[in-house]
Design a protein that fits this description.
five-stranded mixed β-sheet; 164 residues
Amino acid sequence: MRVIGIDPGLRALGWGVIELSGSKLSHVANGICRTSSGDLSQRLASLFEQLSEVFETYRPETAAVEQTFVNKDGAATLKLGQARGIAMLVPARAGLQVGEYAPNAVKKAVVGVGHADKNQIAHMVRMQLPGVELAGADAADALAIAICHAHHAQSNSRYSKAIA
């Protein structure tokens, strides 16, 4: 199963694609969709186009996106929510269901604790995907989201087989 994880951001939207075969995870690709400052609608359109290209290139079978946390700056949270909308729209247009995970759930699945920092996340992503070259912190976070989703898919599959 090919899984894409997406870490929404308006300036830098991280993405990471992994392959799940049985219980083995392997890295396929990762990167960052970047936008420059300017008109919000053009930045969102750019994110849509870049992420659509990623989907066309790597053909994921399932997708996961990090949930938005609300911070003190309401305008910034709203803009992040709009980038998150793009992160959910592209997989939906590809016919995929999108898993959503809270940041602490992703950290717990990858690092083992819910309050890990970005360096810890990148380190554990490298441990779980040996040889991976990370495009940046946003791509590492996206790979962590994909790993979290893969773990949940494995658990759900085992559960479904157990009750069948």
